[in-house]
Predict the structure.
Amino acid sequence: MNVRATTVALAACLSACAGPALTPSVAPSAPKRDALLVLPGFGYGRDDEEAFRAVARTSSAAGMDVYVASYLTRSGLGTSRDRLARFARDHRLDRYERLHVFAFIAGGWTVNPLAESGGLPNLASITYDRSPYQERAPRIAADSMPLLAWLRYGSTVFDVARTPYTPLRAEHVRVALMVESMPTAFIKQHEAAARKDGPFDFDCDSFVQRYDDCLYLAMDHDDVYARFADIWPELIAFIQTGRFSDTANRTPPTGDPLTRRAAK
């Protein structure tokens, strides 16, 4: 693969660290409201902004203010965590009655230590976007194209690639997992490298994170950004009740999409 093609493939997997932030257009006037803090990862870019804005318009009328944080820095997970804490302070997220978090992959690596240390005192629930496929993408980028990865994303992508996941243990916080069941184009293009870490395990218990409910999305990582409105009904169901709906897909996928593709 030439340099141009490699750059395009990397961009398809990992977008700019600091995507556009989103905050309510009107500051909340009453404390008896909830807030949803969305923590995008490397896949978030300006093309995905409208998907979050559409959800924000709907949820605001129902008493839920949506914030999308621009928090990932080039300097590593530590400074990204500091920037996230500053975002929470600057937007006074502690004034809400309850704070809910939706964390894409890098978001989980960033927010958990902050939450464990009491940095989000009104945290009521957190929903993680997890993927047996996409969680290998930072390591692939760091190993296969380190210069390009560093030029575009700095040290943070290397930190995520090399830092074991630290689970959230706070018992008072409701926890859910949304598991992607499809690989992105980047993973398909780097199939051999993706398989170096062993079989792809979709079992909810394999993600080293306690949870109250877990479902499977027939989506890849890019889909979750672009089609965030499609997962919103299940997300709001969990926020309101601590469970996904009765119709949520809780059955792990069978087979391996990469194997099926190779067999065609």
